[in-house]
């Protein structure tokens, strides 16, 4: 896999960090940098790609992503951590995230999905692709979509 760019916007003593597609974060350098930016008001992450575990992404990499997320929670990397994108493609994301939600509560960190952050219902359209489009994973009159190992 390649590298992605993480961005921190800072004004006076306030900051927000956008680190989408860091997959957890799984990369130790990403975790280190996010820890160095600790104390942000908001941190947006893609979360680990648990739906790809053992399929397109080694289980160890997904586990590193889950561990990286836990490390950021414990380090108070942000007041609010929003995880979405990859993580929400797993219908069982809440179960996978249970220890993290517990740790966040203990640490006084808000750990939310993007929908929860915006105050709307979580609707996992991508995770429910086969249900919504039919067994073949095709939109009416459209091409077959990529199978995410569901």
Computed over alpha carbons, the radius of gyration is 16 Å
Q: What count of domains describes the coordinates? A: 1
- Count of distinct strands: 5
Give a quick account of the main beta sheet: strands, pairing sense, barrel closure: 5 strands, mixed
Which features does this protein show?
five-stranded mixed β-sheet, 5 helices, 150 residues, alpha/beta
Describe this protein's structure.
The chain has 150 residues and is an alpha/beta fold. The protein has one domain (7-133). Helices cover 33% and strands 17% of the residues. The protein has five helices and five strands; from the N terminus they run ββαβαβαβαα. The protein has a five-stranded mixed beta sheet with strand order 1-2-3-4-5. Helix 3 links the parallel strand 4 and strand 5. The chain is globular, with a radius of gyration of 16 Å.
Strand and helix map with partners:
Elements lengths: L6 E5 L2 E6 L8 H9 L3 E6 L13 H16 L3 E6 L9 H15 L2 E3 L1 H5 L10 H5 L17
Parallel strand pairs: 2-3, 3-4, 4-5
Antiparallel strand pairs: 1-2
Short description:
The chain has 150 residues and is an alpha/beta fold. The chain contains five helices and five strands; from the N terminus they run ββαβαβαβαα.
